[in-house]
Design goal:
Elements (H helix, E strand, L loop, with lengths): L1 H8 L4 E4 L6 H5 L12 H9 L11 E4 L2 E4 L4 H19 L3 H19 L18 H15 L4 H14 L2 H6 L3 H4 L8 H14 L5 H12 L8 H19 L9 H32 L2 H40 L12 H6 L6 E6 L4 H14 L17 H7 L6 E6 L2 E6 L2 E2 L5 H6 L5 E5 H5 L3 H8 L4 E6 L5 H4 L3
């Protein structure tokens, strides 16, 4: 008010507009009952909103020489509410100028943030949507990063998808090399572009393990990774299989079964690990994904199968079969490799402390190697991994019997049922505890499925005072075969 009064005193024509619903300016100029005024600024604004014709002097009050007033009153509050509601409806229901302006603003913020890590060629021609000011770039990048990692990521994703669609960014990104896209988190479509390019290359027999590993490691830290985790884990497993192939491109031509055994337990088992890891990802992907990426991933699976079945199993299996044929034909086992039949005598009979033996049917060596590494990470105790050759023939009935104490294993055929005997005693599941106790009275045989359903105190009571505890891992075995183990 003071500024207006000063300008009026200086001879300037002044119109003071009161935009306060509480009418502070109107009251200050002596109008004590603003709510009684016939016309106020609220009426003028309502007329403008409704496209009404409004005379220039409507509602204007002459206060003094050179000074006029467009007064306010409480009606202005109602006008504000109605305008907010109208704007909200237009934002939701239609494309207004405001929508377009907000869309441009969103594009400017996201493109400016992306500019920091994307190659220039990816955004060529979009310069008008980006600032060249490094401080503003940093502000946009911080804003996007905070938003992406907030609880409101869903709203960000919708806006980002709109921007990338309107700017045809997916097509732009697809023309760039994968490494140049790996550091950018701004746009949700980037992972699909990256994976499409990598898996297309794999389908064309272009596999660069170093590139796949580096890109996957960068994407792993980004917010969209979980959505595509199975794809990334799968192609990383393939890249490791490819690296293994390059290391052993000459094939498998080792002389001597013991040397092949040692090579497997020290090195070759890794290929089985990578194959298992790929198929865990592949099976998970079939439950969660679809569309073009899944089609490409199916092509990756075909590459994996060729590499694993044709080259690895075919080559190593042939080498092994040739080297063990003589020993198996004459002795039924391979000389120089610890035997499953000697397990109880070597590992259990003379142990100084309580022994727990967990028996998991058909557990592969590579799974045990992975479990060993996990136990070393998670526990403070010492964890060792060793291997032994299974009894021949490698059938579950024989393997289970071989782990029990015995001097001699035999078989008998009774009513067309093959029975495996230890020292003349049945080795079926109901007889195993009796066989263990025949050597050490403080022995017990348990099923994992029963233990898991018990409380901790109940489990402790079962093994209290026992020196030998055999636990049969029967949880993931088919129900129609559990009774035979």
């Amino acid at each position: 008010m003071n500024l207006g009064a000063g300008l009026a005193t200086a001879g300037k024509k002044v119109l003071m507009v009161d935009l306060d619903p509480q009418a502070s300016l109107t009251l200050s100029l002596g109008y004590r009952e603003p709510d009684q005024l016939e016309i106020s600024v609220a009426d003028i604004i309502s007329g403008i909103v409704n496209d009404a014709e409004i005379p220039d002097d409507l509602g204007v009050i002459h206060v003094s020489e050179n000074m006029d007033l467009l007064p306010s009153n409480i009606q202005l509050s109602a006008v504000e509410v109605s305008m907010v509601n109208a704007m909200s409806r237009e934002l939701v229901l239609s494309y207004t100028d405001m929508d377009r302006n907000l869309g441009v603003l969103a594009s400017q913020i996201l493109l400016t943030a992306g500019r920091r890590t994307l190659p220039e060629a990816a955004l060529d021609g979009l310069e008008k949507f980006m600032t060249g000011n490094s401080q503003q770039e940093a502000m946009c990048a911080d804003l996007v990063s905070d938003w992406i990692h907030s609880d409101d990521i869903e709203s960000y994703e919708k806006i980002a998808e709109t921007v990338q669609d309107e700017m045809h960014l997916e097509n732009r990104f697809s023309k760039q090399n994968v490494a140049s896209l790996a550091d950018t988190e701004v746009f949700p479509c980037l992972d699909e572009v990256i994976l499409t390019k990598l898996m297309t290359d794999i389908g064309n027999e272009i596999i660069v393990p170093e590139e796949i590993d580096a890109v996957a490691e960068k994407r792993r830290t980004m917010v969209w990774f979980e959505k595509y985790k199975d794809y990334y884990d799968g192609i990383v497993a393939l890249s490791r299989m490819q690296s293994f192939f390059k290391e052993h491109a000459a094939g498998f031509h080792i002389v001597g079964a013991k040397k092949i055994w040692d090579a497997y337990t020290k090195d070759y088992y890794r290929m089985d690990t990578y194959y298992r890891e790929f198929h865990m990802s592949y099976e998970n992907s079939k439950k969660s994904y679809g569309g073009s990426l899944q089609d490409l991933f199916t092509g990756v699976n075909e590459k994996v199968e060729r590499l694993y079945s044709n080259w690895y199993l075919g080559g190593l299996g042939h080498n092994w079969s040739e080297e063990v044929a003589g020993d198996l034909a004459i002795k039924g086992y391979v000389e120089g490799i610890p035997r499953q039949e000697d397990f109880y005598s070597n590992k259990v009979r003379h142990a100084d402390n309580k022994v727990y033996v967990i028996i998991s049917d058909a557990m592969r060596y590579e799974v045990a190697a992975s479990l060993t590494e996990q136990l070393r990470r998670d526990m403070q105790g010492k964890v060792d991994l060793s291997s032994m050759q299974g009894v021949f023939p490698t059938i579950t009935k024989f393997g289970m019997a071989a782990l029990l104490p015995h001097q001699k294993m035999t078989v008998e055929l009774n009513n067309n049922q093959l029975k495996v005997l230890d020292d003349g005693q049945s080795t079926d599941s109901t007889y195993r505890e009796k066989l263990l106790q025949s050597v050490n009275g403080e022995s017990v045989a348990l099923k994992a499925s029963n233990l898991i359903s018990m409380k901790r105190a109940e489990r402790s009571e079962l093994v209290k005072g026992k020196e030998v505890v055999y636990i049969y891992h029967d949880i993931w075995i088919r129900t129609d075969s559990i009774s035979s183990l």
